[in-house]
Amino acid sequence: MAQPIFKYFSSETYRQNVKNGTEPYLQVVSSWVPFDKNNIVGYLAASVYQSYAAIYGGGWITSFDTNAMVIMVFFRSELELLRRDSGEIFGKESMPIDDGIIMKKFKDCHRRHVDFVEYARVFDSCLSPIMLLYMFVCSVMLCVTAYQITIETSPMQRFLTTEYLVFGVAQLFIYCWHSNDVLVASQDVMRGPYESAWWARDIKYRKDLYILIGQFSKNVVFSAGPFAKLTVATFINLLKVQNLHTGLNYYALLTRVIDIDALIWWDAS
């Protein structure tokens, strides 16, 4: 949002071109407005409107990302606590606990994990469509931005384009990282019952222990639509050499289209 103001006060050539009408005002966001934005009054009004829209949209995205990541961290913490509590079902070898308390801990750990799986499923149903869009945008952005950086002549514009690319990729990486943490924690929670003093207790508890371990064996991982899981491996695959080849092919296609358009224009003239 500060780029138009910075360019206006830092570039005398730009100011002269704007006054002469040979160069349009640099907009905050390219958008349509129901008034003339080529004069100073309309331009200022459009800039205020575009700045408000950018802040409003950025606020919504930031709020969504923050809530989603906090929930993922909470899920991982709950799994870590569940592993710790399941490891203390039978107490310590030197301090055994009563049978009634043991059964209560069994039921509590089983209920908590069942509820956790259900809440994770509901959360994934809300997150998955958005993450599918994120991954699609990130894939296209890798190709388009690489091409745009090569054709830009302004160092400032190249910097802004690269910054946009880095932040877009980092946003997807953070989701994949936290989702991967939840997956790893859901796999490790099954170790909790094995870390307990089960071997020092009566054999009658082993059936309950098997049931609890079977419940804990359900892995939890969030998805990006029906096509991909949000893991670090998925993020790496998105940036693999084959995607670089796709970007180069896209770059070659755009260059070819531009050359054909230039040739058609030359023949027509």
UniProtKB/TrEMBL annotation:
InterPro entries given for it? 7tm6_olfct_rcpt (IPR004117)
Transmembrane domains' residue ranges: 131-149
Q: Which Pfam families match?
A: 7tm_6
Q: Does the keyword Amino-acid biosynthesis apply?
A: no
- Main localization of the protein? membrane
Identify a single GO molecular function assigned to this protein. Answer: olfactory receptor activity
Its keywords, alphabetically, are:
Cell membrane, Membrane, Olfaction, Receptor, Sensory transduction, Transducer, Transmembrane, Transmembrane helix
Q: Which GO terms describe its cellular component?
A: plasma membrane
Q: Where does it live in the cell? A: Cell membrane
What is the recorded name of this protein? Odorant receptor
